[in-house]
Design goal:
Layout: E1 3-5, E2 15-16, E3 27-29, H1 34-45, E4 53-58, E5 64-68, E6 77-82, E7 87-88, H2 89-93, H3 98-101, H4 106-117, H5 126-131, H6 144-147, H7 154-178, H8 192-205, E8 216-217, E9 232-239, E10 245-252, H9 272-279, E11 290-296, H10 304-313, E12 319-325, H11 332-342, H12 359-363, H13 369-388, H14 394-403, H15 411-424, H16 438-447
Parallel strand pairs: 1-11
Antiparallel strand pairs: 2-11, 3-4, 4-5, 6-10, 7-8, 9-10, 11-12
């Protein structure tokens, strides 16, 4: 969700943030790691080679992860999972609930299949399902008190919107599918809580190129943790006779040392708030800061019709959304939109029809000192208003991260990082970039646009 900007004299945005990269940490070996050992058992049952994988505890988080069992060259296929071992809509339609779910969206079919197979001893998917977290760490599962820690962030808007959407989905399915067919969807296994678990599990495990068409869960391959500084990636390849089959290969994107954690980037193009919402992950060592900002031309603007005409002739509309990334210049189109919104007084000569062909090019460059000052003032007002909605100061959040009072990976820890990283660039495993006060953050946010 994006905060809409409607006042011509104020720019409002909600943000969540991110920072810089660090090298991967070497892991130390451990004897057991239940979820990973379970999914390795599933792989053995499906004759999937895992000789290039080992299990170790990450030194930074003490969480079991897959590591390279030997040195791997760039491009090496670490493991390969054939499409016969994927969980797809076709898998759901061939199951006991198949006749009920065929008309649903693929991701819903996968979620309902997880519910139908969960706790079934004879299920071929029981090992995989038992390896999934029973309590997903997605903000969709945070308590109201925990969600208050996100007050002021754009992430909170998105969480509340998705919670409402999934609640409405459950209500509709319960009335039209679950209640009329309780033999297939017993109330003790299919209820609001379990439905939320299944939806969150599917969302967290879907990755490109199998997150759209087709949609598929790929056991074992989806057990690699997220890191921006990835050393592995999913690759979809043809297989079988005449290449009609498919195989999902996890390939090394660079040379990987024996004992090094195998990690992948869950969304190279996604901001961190989207990854936390979709996959319940937040890289503690490398961040991708950004705003999702929507600008809206106010209809009470004296020159609304003329300005709207300019926007439409240049492929925009009365409302347009832009992504802002930390350390990168904003899009010229966004600056043109902002300058057009603030266009007034003697600068309005640009609205004359004689400038119709050139006006947008002019707007993508500074128009006048008063116009640039108006844009700057609007950004200052927006930054000030956004900062005022936070439940803590930047200094307070930085102190929490520095003093070690937070449990790494806990919900409070993630909330604090969400609140402060986009402004400071502060990472749990790294130092601070930029200012450490609200005033410094305010001026830094404006400098981005000038």
């Amino acid at each position: 969700m994006m905060h809409s900007l409607q006042n011509r004299h104020a720019v409002s945005s909600r943000c969540m943030g991110v920072g810089r990269s660090h090298s991967l940490r070497v892991c130390r070996a451990v004897q057991t790691a239940d979820p990973l050992q379970v999914v390795l058992g599933w792989a053995g049952s499906n004759k999937i080679a895992t000789d290039k994988l080992a299990v170790a505890n990450d030194l930074a988080t003490d969480v079991p992860v897959f590591v390279a069992a030997k040195d791997l060259p760039a491009g090496d296929a670490i493991l390969q999972v054939p499409d016969s071992a994927w969980i797809t809509a076709d898998t759901a339609q061939k199951s006991a609930i198949g006749k009920y779910v065929g008309s649903l969206e693929p991701w819903l079919q996968l979620a309902l299949l997880l519910l139908a197979e969960k706790g079934q001893p004879g299920s071929s998917w029981s090992q995989y399902i038992s390896s999934l977290p029973s309590q997903p760490n997605s903000p969709l599962f945070w308590s109201d008190e925990e969600l208050q820690l996100l007050e002021g962030t754009q992430l909170l808007e998105s969480v509340l919107g998705y919670k409402q959407f999934f609640s409405e989905q459950y209500q509709q399915l319960n009335e039209e599918l679950f209640s009329p067919n309780r033999a297939a969807f017993p109330a003790d296994r299919v209820n609001r809580t379990s439905f939320s678990w299944a939806v969150a599990s599917v969302r967290s495990k879907l990755h490109a190129p199998l997150d759209a068409d087709p949609v598929a869960l790929v056991p074992l391959a989806d057990a690699l943790p997220h890191r921006r500084n990835a050393n592995a990636a999913w690759k979809l390849k043809s297989a079988g006779i005449f290449g009609k089959g498919k195989v999902l290969a996890v390939e090394a994107t660079r040379a990987v040392r024996k004992g090094e954690a195998l990690v992948m980037d869950y969304g190279p193009e996604k901001l961190d708030n989207a990854l936390l919402l979709d996959h319940a992950v937040l890289d503690p060592s490398s961040n991708k800061a950004g705003y999702s900002l929507t600008l809206t031309l106010p209809e009470d603007d004296r020159y609304y019709a003329d300005k709207l005409d300019i926007l439409e002739r240049n492929g925009l509309g009365g409302s347009a959304s832009f992504s802002l990334l930390r350390g990168e210049e904003p899009a010229p189109e966004m600056m043109g939109f902002l300058r057009l919104m603030q266009l007034s007084g003697s600068d309005c000569f640009l609205l004359e029809s004689i400038f119709e062909a050139e006006v947008w090019a002019y707007l993508c460059q500074p128009v006048s000192a008063p116009n640039e000052a108006a844009v700057c003032s609007a950004m200052m007002d927006g930054a000030r208003e956004a900062l005022s909605r936070y439940c803590s100061s930047i200094d307070e959040d930085l102190a929490l991260l520095r003093d070690g009072g937070l449990v790494p990976g806990s919900r409070q820890d993630m909330a604090v990082q969400v609140r402060c990283r986009y402004i400071t660039g502060y990472g749990r495993w790294g130092g601070m970039q930029g200012g450490n006060t609200h005033d410094a953050a305010l001026h830094a946010s404006v400098r981005v646009f000038l």
